[in-house]
């Protein structure tokens, strides 16, 4: 568990407690399991409780933290794309009295997803960047970002080219969505406006690992925010 970020650890804590419920797990046992301090476990449990996760402390020598199974959901069959779509939709609650409640609901849903689906959702969310404070337009059809794509793309003048691209992520602006990818035709990272992708085919080829760095986005103004499922 070394190197696991806090969001992943919170999900894993809930899954661990759900797996053994109604039996308790002590803070020291959880600390050893996740290779963190007891104090870190206590802070994590407190954060989960504040978000509405039904965890309670059972006193005594054999006590510890328990998850109330009667008030938790069974594994939720949300896809990664559905979870990310919900996170983007919740952006429209910013500035309303229900912003915190919406994000809390999303955390509960992600915690109830199957572990592999939650991990895939986190990977997809990390590939989405939002630019500017304005409302985000509807999310385009999510293109597979783990396979090489063949696309027909129209430029500003309407000229269509065929390209093979290696997707790296999305950038959402108040006006448009862009698919950021390594373009094999231009041999560099390019931004493709999704409404100009006339058609696409998902190939079976897994592209080489490339990291999308903030400087690769080459955005001269505005703050870029990475989407998160943690609220």
From TrEMBL:
Pfam families to which the protein is assigned, alphabetical: HTH_11, WYL
InterPro entries to which the protein is assigned, alphabetical: CBASS_pafABC_assoc_protein, HTH_11, WH-like_DNA-bd_sf, WH_DNA-bd_sf, WYL_dom
Residues covered by the Helix-turn-helix type domain: 9-65
Gene3D superfamilies: Winged helix-like DNA-binding domain superfamily/Winged helix DNA-binding domain
All residue ranges annotated as the WYL domain in the record: 146-202
Signal peptide positions on this chain: none
The protein's name in its UniProt record: HTH domain-containing protein
Gene source species: Amycolatopsis tolypomycina
């Amino acid at each position: 568990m070394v190197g696991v970020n806090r969001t992943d650890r919170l999900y894993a804590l809930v899954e661990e407690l759900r797996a053994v419920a109604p039996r308790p797990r002590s803070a020291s046992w959880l600390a050893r399991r996740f290779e963190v301090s007891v104090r870190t476990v206590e802070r994590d449990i407190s954060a989960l409780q504040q978000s509405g996760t039904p965890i309670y402390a059972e006193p005594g020598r054999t006590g510890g933290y328990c998850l109330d199974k009667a008030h938790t959901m069974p594994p939720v069959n949300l896809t990664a794309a559905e979870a990310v779509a919900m996170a983007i939709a919740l952006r429209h609650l910013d500035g309303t009295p229900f912003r915190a409640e919406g994000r809390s609901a999303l955390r509960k849903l992600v915690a109830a997803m199957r572990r592999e689906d939650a991990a895939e959702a986190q990977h997809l969310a990390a590939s989405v960047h939002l630019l500017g404070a304005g409302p985000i337009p509807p999310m385009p059809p999510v293109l597979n970002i783990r396979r090489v794509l063949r696309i027909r793309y129209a430029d500003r003048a309407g000229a269509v080219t065929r390209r093979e691209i290696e997707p790296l992520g999305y950038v959402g602006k108040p006006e448009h969505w862009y698919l950021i990818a390594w373009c094999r035709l231009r041999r560099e990272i390019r931004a493709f406006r999704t409404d100009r992708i006339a058609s696409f085919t998902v190939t079976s080829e897994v592209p080489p690992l490339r990291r999308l760095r903030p400087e690769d986005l080459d955005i001269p103004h505005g703050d870029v925010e990475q989407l998160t499922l943690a609220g």
